[in-house]
Amino acid sequence: MRVALIQMPVTPDKQENISGACRAILTAACNGADVAVLGKMFCCHYENSCFRAYGEEAGGPAQQALSALAGELGLYIVGGSIPELEGDKVYNTSYVYGRKGELLAKHRKVHLFDINVAGGQRFMESDTLSPGNAITTFETEFGTCGLCICFDLRFEELARCMCLRGAKVLFVPAAFNMTTGPAHWELLFRQRAVDNQCFTVGVSPARDETASYVAYGNSLAVDPWGTVLCRAGAEEAILYADLDMGRLEVVRAQLPILSARRTDLYEVREK
């Protein structure tokens, strides 16, 4: 599975952001990508004031563009995330499209990012956003994949539930900031990969020092041994990671973590 990690800048112009994403996905397809992954809130700045204004209902322009492009190019698109409008609620939602442009999965961010670090970042998603209530996986010819958004990754139970469904890769559109990014970004992606013996792929927007919320960038892919396969810097970039599912099986055979769990003593399960 060749994955393209598209770390793109975000502008105040929604249509330009969608067009920029499509251009980057076309480049990824030309370089042999099976899966193209966009960053969190790729079509608007990550600000509470933007979410409703830039949001869209089912079948909106960002969704139409990504679905059409997936079908045209014959690749999977993990469409970062966008503000989804439903009634009076706004969700942080990621859509996944298959090789024929069909909707394979839709994940509404489960854990809202309400953070207030003394001397650092403060942000309250719950001022605007509502939480989702589902664990999300989808099927490809490479195997089952999991999908979550940003702060969701901090909850091991969610990652474990996806992997107990059979997920071999966890795709995570995300936007850590300049407080949490340097401290926890790589640590968390390597930790979840090692804990669950899976690949993890995190894609961020490019860093914009003028934004009210400054994304850390540093999009990366990690293998089941915890090895970082690729990692961007702060700037706009398209990275490629070749995920070898044979490597996953080797790691799981050599170090039997999932199969050696003592479910007679403890259990993580879906409700």
List the helices and strands and how they pair.
Layout: E1 2-7, H1 14-30, E2 35-37, H2 48-54, H3 61-73, E3 76-78, E4 82-86, E5 89-97, E6 103-108, E7 114-116, E8 122-124, E9 136-140, E10 143-147, H4 156-164, E11 167-173, H5 180-196, E12 199-203, E13 220-222, E14 228-231, E15 237-242, H6 245-254
Parallel strand pairs: 1-2, 2-3, 10-11, 11-12
Antiparallel strand pairs: 1-15, 3-5, 4-5, 5-6, 7-8, 9-10, 12-13, 13-14
Total number of strands: 15
Any idea what the CATH superfamily is called? Carbon-nitrogen hydrolase
CATH topology: Nitrilase/N-carbamoyl-D-aminoacid amidohydrolase
Shape: globular
The SSE string, one letter per element, is EHEHHEEEEEEEEHEHEEEEH
Which whole number gives the mean pLDDT? 96
Query: Number of helix segments?
Result: 6
CATH structural class: Alpha Beta
- Helical amount among residues, as a percent range? 25-40%
The biggest beta sheet is recorded as: 7 strands, mixed
Structural class: alpha/beta
What is the correct CATH architecture?
4-Layer Sandwich
How much of the sequence lies in strands comes to: 25-35%
Radius of gyration, in angstroms, nearest whole number: 17 Å
